[in-house]
Hints:
Layout (H helix, E strand, L loop, with lengths): L8 E7 L2 H4 L3 E4 L7 E3 L4 E3 L14 E9 L6 E3 L1 E4 L5 E7 L2 E7 L13 E5 L4 E4 L4 E2 L3 E3 L3 E9 L7 E4 L6 E5 L2
Parallel strand pairs: 1-10, 1-16
Antiparallel strand pairs: 2-11, 3-4, 5-14, 6-16, 7-15, 8-11, 8-14, 9-10, 9-12, 9-13
Amino acid sequence: MREHPDVPRVLVARPLTPEGFAPYGDVVSAGLGPGALANQGTAVRFDWSAKLENARESARPNLAVFRSVARSLPFTVKLLEHHPYSSQVFLPMRCERYLVCVAPTAPSGGPDLERLEAFICGPGEGVNYHRGVWHHPIVALDAPAELAMLAWEDGSEGDCVVLHFEPSAHVQVRFDG
């Protein structure tokens, strides 16, 4: 428990790495695993780049594009969301850097804010949130961004559960790099 819970916690975002992000999901990027030549030798294909999950037969894959306005750091986390039945992958299409904030699930079922982590993602780095992982919506940095998103959805409230925080629970995210 924090000594002064009414004072916003300051969280320093760190660069995205597969090892650091592993408790929450997968980093999706060329070259992270072995590849195989494809397209008559003009490309390298990296298979099984993410653990895609769907726990509902009624849900269909939804490939959507998100256009995000740029925000600056420090940034205040006011909500987290999760997808209890589906993984959710974001792949940058037009993007400089973006911020992802993730938290493990607390015994209460909500996010464990004391263990919230933040990562700075660069061009060519996608993220796949494992099913049920608490996360903040994507925050574009430096410039507007467009990211492709894939999740299994059926239009019900179970597609995405959002939790808004009391003001005393805010976390400010900054980057020292």
